[in-house]
Write a structure and sequence with these properties.
The protein is an alpha+beta fold and about 160 residues long. It has helices at about 20-35, 75-85, 115-125, and strands at about 10-15, 45-50, 55-60, 90-100, 130-135, 140-145. The protein has a single domain (about 10-150), classed as Cytidine Deaminase, domain 2, CATH 3.40.140. The longest helix is centred in the N-terminal third of the chain and has 14 residues, at about 20-35.
Length: about 160
């Protein structure tokens, strides 16, 4: 038997002002997008902003539905729209933030498991890591380079059997 240890790397910034201007702008766009979410059930409003290699910023917000599985997370809305409108243009960075109706989110939020898998597929397709910025409505910002820091032991396409 072997025991393996998996390490992840996340950089924490105590304030948005410590980030490069480009990252600050991306987080601002994510926060603006959160205000456009449709979240009558969870009352948890998530916004995402994707920075493409061509400089375009694509935003998304969570969209809920009474049939819960029919809803979509902000990260997937933004990533899927980016790929549909700018196929072949690589994603440089993804920012995600949230606010809630009845409490303050003072710690960084992170993508759910399904969104992490979509980010992994995007990185695999473009053969390039994505910078991921995570923030609450106040408090610190977490940043990581690449999804493997949020999704170790990632399931990739090459694991699928093909003819």
């Amino acid at each position: 038997m072997n025991t393996k240890e998996i390490k992840i790397k996340i950089t924490e910034y105590s304030a948005t002002s410590e980030l490069p201007e480009e990252d600050q702008k991306l987080l601002q766009q994510a926060a603006k997008s959160a205000s456009r979410s449709y979240a009558p059930y969870s009352e948890f409003h998530v916004g995402a902003a994707v920075l493409l290699e061509n400089g375009e910023i694509i935003c998304g917000s969570n969209q809920e539905n009474a049939a819960y599985p029919a809803g979509l997370c902000a990260e997937r809305v933004a990533l899927f729209y980016a790929n549909s409108q700018y196929p072949g243009v690589k994603v440089k960075a993804l920012a995600v933030t949230a606010h809630a109706d009845h409490f303050i989110i003072d710690k960084p939020i992170s993508p759910c498991g399904t969104c992490r898998q979509v980010i992994a597929e995007t990185e695999s397709r473009q053969q390039r890591k994505i910078k991921i910025l995570m923030q609450g409505e106040s408090g610190p910002v977490n940043m990581t380079e690449g999804i493997e820091n949020l999704l170790p032991l990632t399931f990739y396409e090459e694991k699928l059997k093909k003819k």
